[in-house]
């Protein structure tokens, strides 16, 4: 297994001091259910850290690279970069699925469930890089693998996601920024299902479901745009 992850290091252009961190980044919690003696933990803590590091790197890059752009535009572009679909597709292109440590059941998942696992793993890898090599190496990785996709996203207008569209509309029409709350969380630990509500102050304006909080939030925003009769501006 160690040899396999050395191949991944070469593929990603990385050299981990602690090889276990990279391996742990690919360990889904379902794998531990079938392999309780596995010496490393699952990747959720690394994912938690990587999510924050990723957002900081992207925010920092946008702030300094586009000084003439408004907060709203930068927020929209950031959302287009750090959503499950985009980072999941990056992980898929990098061949992450071939290295994932999964249960037999999870390894058969396709579609949204697989994309969510890949996106979570991408964030866990960023967390591992940050811990092992520091911010600058993590930043280079994110810029090379993810932020490099931004010019195409801008050119094709792929940044018009429902959450960004709703935020722009609510700020324009009502002067309020929407907030999201998890209303219900069900399913086994390794395959959660989320019900999320989007609010304007205390008023619920839309609900959405998904296999991740981000996916449920996007669905809630889409429903809110319909409920508020703003859906024609959503792409």
Distance between the termini: 44 Å
Radius of gyration: 19 Å
Task: Tell the overall outline.
Answer: globular
Q: What would CATH call the homologous superfamily of the largest domain?
A: Ribonuclease III domain
Count the DSSP helices: 12
Strand % is 5-15%
Largest sheet, order of strands side by side? 1-2-3
Secondary structure category: mainly alpha
Can you identify the CATH class of the largest domain? Mainly Alpha
- H/E order of the elements? HHHHHHHHHHHEEEH
Number of strands: 3
What would your notes on this structure say?
- It is a single chain.
- The chain is mainly alpha-helical.
- The protein folds into two domains: 2-156, Ribonuclease III domain (Ribonuclease iii, N-terminal Endonuclease Domain, Chain A, Orthogonal Bundle), CATH 1.10.1520.10; 162-233, Double Stranded RNA Binding Domain, CATH 3.30.160.20.
- Helix content is 60%, strand content 10%.
- It contains twelve helices and three strands, in the order αααααααααααβββα.
- It has helices spanning 2-12, 19-25, 29-34, 44-65, 71-82, 84-93, 104-107, 111-133, 135-145, 150-156, 162-173, 213-227; strands at 179-186, 193-200, 203-210.
- The chain has a three-stranded antiparallel β-sheet with strand order 1-2-3.
- α4 (44-65) packs antiparallel against α5, α5 runs antiparallel to α11 and α8 (111-133) runs antiparallel to α9.
- The protein is globular, with a radius of gyration of 19 Å.
